[in-house]
Design brief:
4 copies of one chain form a homotetramer. Chain A folds into 2 domains: about 110 residues, Rossmann fold; about 140 residues, Probable inorganic polyphosphate/atp-NAD kinase, domain 2 (Tumour Suppressor Smad4, Sandwich), CATH 2.60.200.30. Helices cover about 15% and strands about 35% of the residues of chain A. By secondary structure, chain A is of the alpha+beta class. The first copy, chain A, has 6 helices and 18 strands. In chain A, the strands form 4 sheets. Chain A has a 6-stranded antiparallel β-sheet. Chains in contact: A-B, A-C, A-D, B-C, B-D, C-D. The interface between B and C is large, with 51 and 51 residues. Strand 11 of chain A pairs parallel with strand 13 of chain D, so a sheet runs across the interface.
Chain lengths: ~260, ~260, ~260, ~260
């Protein structure tokens, strides 16, 4: 594509990966730059494939502004033309590592998430019980449809729609937000990024899974346990220098717009 | 003003009341129409002054579209020119009657509200206890900063900002929504319009009052009791025939606009 | 069982239906009383099977107090012994009728719900768009995981866990509560019981269904439309006379219990 | 009192301060231990008076378990008897510094908060506009009754009652939670503890103030600006070693108790 040609014209060695099949983490060890073209969804899968590396990644959106894919195609063209904005900077993003230990069978290889890990049920949802311990200490029992464990990046995604807070992008923290809690006292809790959080699901479960970044699915059964902590490496996103709050306002109309019936006054 | 002249030109007898000092309920008994010019705030105070009458009221907004003041000055001019929109219709609005019975001293004359009655504290808020009974039966104890009792009209005002639901405009019901509940299990409750709801405030109260439609203030002291029920008459608003949902969408961006970070998917 | 024997001893003709297979609505036309023994779940399915009839139903719980199955086995024994509490009374409960009109294929027979009708997704939830019209008028577009349409009875069930209000049991109304709304402005709305509400689902749907009272499942596809209104008959529950607010407090700790960190004060 | 006698019996020099009038920060420079006897409220005021020092503080509750006053009178007696629990440890708590710069008049000395800083209105609340900038960058405009800026310690107090999240006690962060936001899109945001957050209030304000830990009041006028950041020193609380989650569960019934109507299923 155009971008590949542009980089080559600058003398760079370029590998294209339209189908997303290259062993990205291996190649990245020798790469100076990854350019992910698409949208935020593309960035999410790229980030997961780059865990273990420190290669800077440039996110280019083909349509509307993304939370992660902040750069437009024009930005990329200007960059290729040698016009690197001085405001660009590396913005490391904490990722999650999730480790599933089934009650029956061997533990799986860890999965990684840039947005969130979700405990999700099938169509016929039932109340499940999810015990949470933090650094080995019993913390809470959720009685809910499911729950979301979200990074600061993912705090504006699914967690927000369940009533979770927005997390500042510089925090090393994650938030656990229950979905449809049947105990009315369960609230989102924000935990330190150094915490190791264990979960175990029980109850009469029909169809249940861990969903990673909305893209990968790992089956869960009653009695299964999984552990969430920070991933060993951050995702090295090249940020445009645009203010996070600008993006929030543009994408969420956060702190903008609709007013209530404010007649009285 | 222009409107008064227009009505007079049509041979109508017109009383103007810019300062809002006429005994409106008395005069209204002989009036065929009240025209309230201003905004939703003007309509609220007009409605309270018209309790006990059945005179149709036309709400004209001088600026932006209101929830109640739906008609523009141009609409009024066209009406005066004989061009009555066929979609106009009477839309009776349930109002609240609130009766304060102080622990010490005589009961006050009832007050009326088209939007809401609010238990509100001064700057140094403290946890107050508010016992609620419904039709003589103990219902709940709120431990909160205060609470709102709102009509369907008022459900899009203060109650909404505290997490209350939107009530359909045809419902005869009101909603009780606590403000900053310290018991996490207190939720808004929607009660039938025929209910008589009693409240009693206790606890270490500094400065506390009932606020009616955001415009009138009645002092409350610990031990005071007040009762809320439907007012004896509805407010007879002339509606433009515009859909309530259109107004909701226009004023609240309800069901429109801002989207979350929906990358994943 | 014991109850059947007891009724027979009183000279009544008794039909037992442990497997739940009798054509209940047909038989009910000639019955004077239905006794549903189990829990609230048993009452839900009994109510759906009795739509079209007006036979009083007594709900007996075998374990803990239910919202619907208010009577204990001891209550039933006392009743059989001729000791009918004078506080018992008929408490008609509004039910919902849901009519699914698939985009492709014939419309289905209506289904009925005593608690709620839920638009529910499979494990890999995606943002769906649900257009709602009320009495033929476009009302809102939800962008959410799904939504719940709930009766007053069901307002303390799933809808509550999504932030919906509690509806007084005397209201003829239902509440529409979105699940994980991606537009932050979508709030629960309470509609009159006389409303006919149409919904159409669009968007990139994987696995989607209507779930009725948490017990029946009707598949939904993009483009399908369904209509919800009040069912033609109410469910004629025999209530114990116990206050609804007592049940709320007992079951939800509503207006009771947990306090926040209220140090400052 | 008994405690003072106990310490003296051990040969310690003891200063008593029942009326709370000693220049605590000055004296603390030479003290080895502060014992605050009362409840969480006592701890809040003690913490504010100790800013600038690093003296360990033991919180003793005379009644029920506190979030901060974790130790009972018996614990203190055992400690005086030489029986120091090995699980006791220093648990530094981040505090807030708030600096008010009135539009007219000189800036005030900074105030400090262990729980929260609240923008609070008088009885006749009106919609106020609060602009927030973070590290000099415009972040959001709140249209609300007020807002709360809370530490992790305070996250279970007033902020929680407004829908804010619980913050893990090891986080260096604070949460900004609006009260009765009239824009439906304003959500709690959790900011890094290193952030400097500026606020300016505008709008038709009647009676408005900053309330610090629910105990101190600073008048605010339209146009006034205030800045919030971490205080220069932490409050050095002696923790009992009891799990924070145990306290949450004991005090908030967090993750315990009340269940919804879960009939269906």
């Amino acid at each position: 594509r155009e971008a590949a040609a542009g980089f080559r014209a600058l003398g760079a060695e370029v590998l294209e990966d339209a189908p997303g099949e290259l062993p990205l983490a291996k190649l990245a060890a020798e790469a100076d730059l990854v350019v992910a073209i698409g949208g935020d969804g593309t960035l999410l899968s790229t980030a997961r494939r780059l865990v273990g590396t420190h290669v800077p990644t440039l996110g280019v959106n083909l349509g509307k502004l993304g939370f992660l894919a902040e750069h437009s195609a024009d930005d990329l063209r200007r960059y290729l033309a040698g016009d690197t904005p001085t405001r660009w900077r590396l913005s490391p993003k904490m990722m999650l590592q999730v480790h599933l230990e089934p009650l029956h069978g061997a533990a799986l290889a860890p999965a990684y998430a840039l947005n969130d890990v979700i405990v999700s049920q099938g169509v016929m949802t039932r109340l499940v019980h999810i015990d949470m311990d933090v650094d080995g200490e019993h913390a809470s029992q959720y009685r809910a449809d499911g729950l979301v464990i979200s990074t600061p990046v993912g705090s504006t995604a699914y967690s927000l729609s369940l009533g979770g807070p927005i997390l500042g992008q510089g925090l090393r923290a994650f938030v656990v937000t229950p979905s449809a809690p049947h105990t009315l006292t369960n609230r989102p809790i924000v935990l330190e990024g150094t915490a190791r959080v264990g979960f175990r699901v029980s109850g009469p479960v029909d169809e249940l899974a861990l969903v990673v970044d909305g893209q990968e699915r790992l089956e869960l059964r009653a009695g299964d346990r999984f552990t969430v902590c920070a991933a060993p490496t951050d995702f090295c996103l090249i940020a445009s220098g645009r203010s996070y709050f600008d993006i929030l306002r543009a994408k969420l109309a956060w702190g903008a717009a609709p007013r209530l019936n404010d007649a009285a006054g």
